[in-house]
Amino acid sequence: MKPARFVIRLNSFWGTYLAGLLSFDVEYRRESFFLTSQQVFCFRVCNSERSVMSFSPDKFGNTDEVGATTETYEKFTTHVGYHRQLRRRYLTLLGVSLLLCASFVFDVSNGPGNFPLSVVFETLLNPQAHGIKLEVIIWDYRLPIAITAVLVGAILALAGAQMQTVLNNPLAEPFTLGVSSAASFGAALAIVVGWSIVPNLGPLLVTFNAFVFALMTCVFILVATRIKGVGTETMILFGIAIFFAFNAALAMMQYMASEDELARIVFWMMGSLSRASWEKISLGAILLSLALPYSFYRTWQLTALRMGDDTAISLGIDVARLRVEMLIVISLLAATAVAFVGTVGFVGLVGPHIARLIVGEDQRFFIPLSALVGALTLSLTSIISKMITPGIIYPIGIITALIGVPVFISLILSTRKERLS
Amino acid sequence: MTLEISGLCSGYGRKQILKNVSIAKVSGGEFVGLIGPNASGKSTLFKSIAGAVTPTDGAITLDGRDLRRASRGQRSKVVAYMPQSYGCNAVLTVFECVLLALKQMTGWRVKQDDLQRVSSVLHALGLSHLSDRGISKLSGGQAQMVSVAQTLVREPRLVLLDEPTSALDLHHQLSILSTIRSFMRNKNMIVIAALHDLNLAAQFCDRLVLIREGEVLADGRPEQVLELKEIDETYRVMTNLEKTSRDTLYVDARLSA
After folding, report:
1. Do residues A292 and A177 both lie within one domain?
2. What is the pLDDT averaged over residues A296-308?
3. Three-state DSSP state, A266
4. How buried is residue B8: exposed, middle or buried, by Cβ count under 10 Å (0-12/13-18/19+)?
5. Is A121 exposed, middle or buried (0-12, 13-18, 19+ CB in 10 A)?
6. What is the pLDDT of residue A23?
């Protein structure tokens, strides 16, 4: 929509009528002018987003001619387009948040017990309302699982989103960079050999070992980025190398393991929410509440990073430092999430990708939406894992990929063309 | 406002690119063309001024203050550098790309004033109709114009443009350079642009600096510099400087035998 130079006439009856009906008042930078019905309509459309202007004809039906230059026209249409986009993005964030709430409630209220919704709610408000059995089921079992699903989904997707931004690669996520396989190896080492870096951890041994190995991998990637001449493209190759190395080591562990140990390793690797506990939840929540504000603080720099290193540097950003800082945050996030639930691939990849398709890469929206979509994905997975066979909860690691992939592919194919129309 | 560069040495690691580069006082509103063959050190000079490369020796003085002592943040407020590479695969609109350049200098929140600045720069460069278009969907020339917009929107005191017209058609070469020129004259900025087209350089620049292998060979008004035999030697061509009927300079060049 780019009119050459338009002189606006307000001499048609319908134009005036419509203008009067909508009582427009064009005032922009102290310039007043009137519009034809067509332009009134066009401005009306723009105006509906935000009242950057309004307009009222002083004399009903009279001809008034005021020249409005293309300049004035463009000056607001460009903003208005942006405002419209912002509003759509805020609505998207709100919509996904509501969906997440609904999914969370459904997740808590659903399960092998088949309790009515009212009973579940009453137990949530007052734990002793329906006896000790329900209290245990809701408070010690369903609620931690539902919260862990949301929390871990958000953490994984946030880590994936930041990795993709910082390493400038749409394939980066905790899984593809070898963090998950390192964690699996750490867990297997604890299960088979019973060896840990910190001795005497008791039941936390497996989780802690997984965390340490995941963190070590992240630190390795971090250190590798500091080596001169290693570009961000090389990082993915490093990640793939790590992935294969740890997979081989893991296979070795599996080969050495007894039948019982092998079963435990395989179960750990499948990724399961049933390891949820309130301690893990509080740890994850603290981490997320530190990582999110920090990411927000850096949003404009991260957005600029997407323009390429040269441009980011020319805008005065210390790219190397930003990258290291973000990778430290990502390392902690990824290692924690993987240690908590085991290998859950795909969420770290799909969350950011869906967010990117919907709101683009303005990090003010991209970061929260990635986290929300990740949380929603894992929350829905948690529901589905209970519903496939009543009474059995399938490991989420299996479900995420199985159901997520077709949805993801169809989404890419359907929105690819018009994502930035 | 003045810029002065004296005895600047710079390079990457052990490889020295710039050898004792000095550019005498440039004052506000002056459009300086940096000419020289490929790999002569033009980009390195820009990066050294902008702070992307740390010079080993010399001084860059802007308004009596040594830029080398300024912090990264301070420097980026006064110097805007448009790199040679442009375009990217980010999912951002043109409007957002220009806005993010501006937001590196102002606070976190987007204010109405920020939006107005972005809109007016987009309008000045004739990019308004592209404002909602994705940056990755643009042609090379359009992406380059966006890159220019990112530089100008910050209203710096010193603008460094690394080959701002390399991907543009004839109309846009002329329109971009004249827009930049009127913009800088309005705001009393200094512009240094690396240009390969000597005719464009002659038409738009107030002053030309010829650089070869990291050394300044000539520095002066276009009609003086373009007449020198160093031009022929540097570019390994034979040139003839003519004056057209419209009183503009024309460099007639052909390969030397």
Report:
1. yes
2. 92
3. helix
4. buried
5. middle
6. 38
Handedness of CA A376, A382, A388, A390 (dihedral sign): negative
Residue A192 within any structural domain of the chain: yes
Q: What is the pLDDT of residues B171-216, one digit of tens each?
A: 989 988 998 998 889 889 999 999 999 989 988 999 999 998 889 9
Domain hosting A257: range is 110-415
Q: Which of A165, A300, A302, A321 to mutate to test the interface with B (most CBs of B within 10 A)?
A: A300
Q: Is residue A24 part of a domain?
A: yes
Within A52-201, where are the H helices? Answer: 70-109, 117-125, 131-135, 143-166, 179-192
Question: What one-letter code names the amino acid at A316?
Answer: G
Q: Where are the domains of chain B?
A: 2-255
On whether both A235 and A319 belong to a single domain, the answer is yes
The confidence score (pLDDT) of residue B247 equals: 75
Q: Which residues of A touch B85 (CB under 8 A)?
A: 308, 310-311
The CATH number of the domain holding residue A398 is 1.10.3470.10
Residues A189 and A124 in one domain: yes
Chain A residues in contact with chain B using a Cβ-Cβ cutoff of 8 Å: 1-2, 71, 74-79, 81-82, 85, 297, 299-301, 303-304, 306-308, 310-311, 313-318, 356, 360-362, 419-420
Task: Tell me, yes or no, whether A119 and A73 share the same domain.
Answer: no
Is residue A210 classed exposed, middle or buried when 0-12, 13-18 and 19+ CB atoms within 10 A define those classes? buried
Contact B82 A314 (CB under 8 A): yes
Q: Is residue A267 part of a domain?
A: yes
Contact of B201 with B222, CB cutoff 8 Å: yes
Query: Which helix or strand (DSSP H or E) is residue A16 part of?
Result: helix A13-22
Number of domains, chain A: 2
Question: Which pTM does this prediction carry?
Answer: 0.82
CATH no. of B2-255: 3.40.50.300
ipTM of the modeled complex: 0.86
Average pLDDT value for chain B: 88
| Ordered alpha helix ranges (H), A55-69 | none
Does position A14 have pLDDT exceeding 70, yes or no? no
- Pick A78's closest partner by Cβ from B76, B104, B131: B131
| pLDDT exceeds 60 at position A25 | no
Lowest mean pLDDT among A172-176, B136-140, B184-188: A172-176
Nearest to B108 among A74, A81, A300 (CB): A300
pLDDT score recorded for residue A48? 36
Quick one: pLDDT at residue A299?
Answer: 93
Closest chain B CA to residue A2: B129
